[in-house]
Amino acid sequence: MSQTGHSLLVMKFGGTNMGDAAAIRHSASLAARSVDEGVKVIVVVSAMAGVTNQLLKIADDAQKGDIAAANDEIAAMRTRHFTAAQELGASPDSAAVREIREMHETLRQAVYGVYLLRELTPRSRDLIVAFGERLSAPLMSLALEQSGHRAKHLTGGEAGILTDTNFGNAKPLPTTYERIKDRLSGFMAAGVIPVVSGFMGETEKGAITTLGRGGTDFSATIIGKALHADEVWGWKDVDGVMSADPRVVADARNVDTLSYGEVMELAYFGAKVLHPLAVTPLQDSGIPLRLKNSRDPDFPGTLVQAEPNNDQAHPVKAVTAIRNVSLINVTGAGALGVPQVVASLFDAIARVNITLLMVSQSSSMSNVSIAVQSGDAERTLSALREVGGDLRIEEQDGVAVLAIVGSGMRGQKGVSARMFTALADADVNILMISQGSSELNVSVAINGAEVDQATRAVHAAFRLNEAPVAAD
Ligand SMILES: Nc1ncnc2c1ncn2[C@@H]1O[C@H](COP(=O)(O)OP(=O)(O)O)[C@@H](O)[C@H]1O
Ligand SMILES: N[C@@H](CC(=O)OP(=O)(O)O)C(=O)O
């Protein structure tokens, strides 16, 4: 056991912390610091910042027939990875550089296949997009080796991450946990630091899957559960979870403690700081997740654990927003009074696997409104149109969903009123309201152009810039 009382930590480094050789070297030093204190560390890495979006564009370009644009992007990516490898001390004929070169060649072939077929299936998209994490793991190994440690990089599949076949949004299979333990224990016993490519897994038949955007957090917690880690640490470029997106609210504060449920709500309602399912593997075991600032490693950050830590003065802990939302209004006085019709609307949406951000039904039963990400609006509309009947379906784009989150609002009166008053005072019109039955959040749909001013107004109304009052 180390001086800090930990014996095993899983550490996740996101895109910013893997952005270039200097960032990777600094990230490696944070892992090495704990290793040198006697902690066993498993490192999980994301792609270098921007690479996942670049890969998605490469795949789209190939599908559209623009292979020249795709190849130019691959060449630029290759230079970026080679430069980083070189700056981390790899010679041009080293195994690491050879491996990076071979991976780019396989990527080029996969992209060419998409171009020839002009078809991009979710499965081939996952194969292409996972190269970001496959390419960054050898760079982290190099940095750890340069600091005098032994490291071994592994793909998600090699590390034992086994998923279902829901390409693009895969979930871990129950057997993954034993498998991860089998695959990683040997390295740790031998004093080798495993460096796992995050975001990706493998089906039982060996096809590469991805866990959804931001999925490296999820990879880290899956591994944390499998190895019974003391804690999982997500290194960020911010102090942890903040009371609002710090790019929008200048005086946003760090939230020191959150429950698993609270952080899930926050992630679901757009706080980009964590994957919405990331804490699910930790819930049974109670393993804490800690989000820490890589530029201020001694700051404790945000501790996410089973129990909330409530402070009477602050029933709300954070305010967050989802941009680019569409509202879909279904009206039909006669038809919507029939329960089966409403059920078939939701069935139709579930069949196309769309996440509903908000739902409300008027008590006169003449109207159902739903909010979805604008990228899902077309598919939602066609699914709803297939239900048929005498329904009128209308879409409103350019909407945002604003949510307040905090378990302290449970049973406390006046919280919603405070939010609505703040919005009215800021001249923001509310289009739709919903409160989860768990009373962990209240969400409203508003005009997308007003989302920043609304966030600032609500943040101020709940005095989220003030330090929490310690509970007695
Ligand atoms: N409530 C919030 N708390 C903290 N960060 C937030 C919040 N909402 C949005 N963010 C943004 O999320 C970013 C961190 O996202 P993340 O995906 O972890 O980055 P990376 O991939 O570089 O690790 C921060 O830079 C911050 O701007
Ligand atoms: N690279 C993936 C997975 C991920 O978790 O990235 P990050 O840690 O940079 O958010 C993505 O962009 O979605």
Automatic annotation (TrEMBL):
Coiled coil: none annotated. Pathway: Amino-acid biosynthesis; L-lysine biosynthesis via DAP pathway; (S)-tetrahydrodipicolinate from L-aspartate: step 1/4; Amino-acid biosynthesis; L-methionine biosynthesis via de novo pathway; L-homoserine from L-aspartate: step 1/3; Amino-acid biosynthesis; L-threonine biosynthesis; L-threonine from L-aspartate: step 1/5. GO terms for molecular function: aspartate kinase activity; ATP binding. It catalyses: L-aspartate + ATP = 4-phospho-L-aspartate + ADP. It is an enzyme of class 2 (transferase). PROSITE patterns: ACT. Residues 330-398, 404-472 form the ACT domain. GO terms for cellular component: cytosol. CDD domains: AAK_AK-LysC-like (cd04244), ACT_AK-like_2 (cd04892). Pfam families: AA_kinase, ACT_9. Substrate binds at T52, E133. GO terms for biological process: homoserine biosynthetic process; lysine biosynthetic process via diaminopimelate; threonine biosynthetic process. Keywords: Amino-acid biosynthesis, ATP-binding, Kinase, Lysine biosynthesis, Nucleotide-binding, Transferase. NCBIfam families: asp_kin_monofn, asp_kinases, PRK06291.1. This is Aspartokinase. It comes from Deinococcus ficus.
